[in-house]
Hints:
There is one protein chain. By secondary structure, this protein is mainly α. It folds into two domains: 2-65; 137-343, Lysozyme. Helices cover 52% and strands 7% of the residues. The protein has helices at 13-29, 33-59, 95-104, 109-113, 136-173, 180-192, 200-206, 212-223, 229-234, 268-281, 286-297, 305-308, 320-332, 346-352, and strands at 2-4, 62-65, 68-72, 78-79, 85-86, 241-242, 248-249, 261-263. The strands form three sheets. A three-stranded antiparallel sheet has the order 1-3-2, with no helix packed on it. Helix 5 packs across helix 8 (212-223), helix 5 crosses helix 10 (268-281) and helix 8 packs across helix 13 (320-332).
Amino acid sequence: MLCYFQKNDIDTSFQDSVVIGMQIIKAAFKSNKVVTLLGLGLALLYVVPELTNSSRDLRNASYGVGNARYANAIPLPVRKPGDLPYLVQPHQFDVVSLQDNWSEINFDLHAIRYGQPVPRYFVEQMPVDILDIANVGKRKEMFISVILPLILNANEKTLSRRDRLMDLVADRQQGRDLSREDSGWLKNVAKLYRTDPSDIGTLHKKVDAVPVSIALAQAVEESGWGTSRFAREGNALFGQRIWSEGKGIVPTQRAEGETYEVKAFKTLSDSIASYIHNLNTHPVYSLFRAERARRQVEPENTLNGYKLVETLVAYSERGDEYVSTLQNLIQTNRFDQFEKAQLASERLADRRY
Length: 353
């Protein structure tokens, strides 16, 4: 499983020990057999311990990518309750290992509900044994803890794009000409959101975040709290369909004559980004975007996911029943408590990881 965090650089003492060991071996072969054997023994004393330590270092080695770092997390063997020990596949997390990592960075979902910043710890696949969590409450906490930082990160990127858009609008209103770079950026964003660059009003409505409570509720409903085959095998959280053969996962209960597949993604982040882009661009969700914009402008109508979700009746063939299900999920799981959640600052994240 791919996740982002920071570790110290690999120790170079292993390389020094190898050099010393090779020097001993070369010297030994120039002498008699007894000395050769002694030389090989000394070389092993130098190299083997360092080789073991180095393998542990390599397991946790990080590779810088911007401010975050990618790392191949290979958890230690864990024991299932009542079962024999088993090994987790490399690059994947099991539930116990993931909980241990969260504990190390003080990831506290209860505290987050009441304002604690969310650590920038991004898990890109569901835990391999999420189906083994028998306690429903624990399974829900696991799912929310995995998905919440990813939703906030996707919204943060969208809002960053929105901020730049608003800066360009302000420049235009003050009579300043846009630079070639800014003009090119605006054209690209307009193309991405399927809008004419001159139609700033429509673009302003489209480039915006999705309420966290709605994203959580839809991810829960469409993925079965992360336990569906689509979520586990294709990182698909929102049931988005695709009609290109071989680009997704074929539902086992697909009606005869249907050709759609459930779109698969490389990571959970990709699934969330695609979902947000879908709500922000598809014509059928224009009412959602208009109502979102209206509620943000009028102070008495602050953004409320519970009410705003009523505009997503077209998302499912179930219509109003689907909307009622989402509202029930928001209410019973208190997803509204995450509406104002924010990712920790970069400085705080660097200190914790």
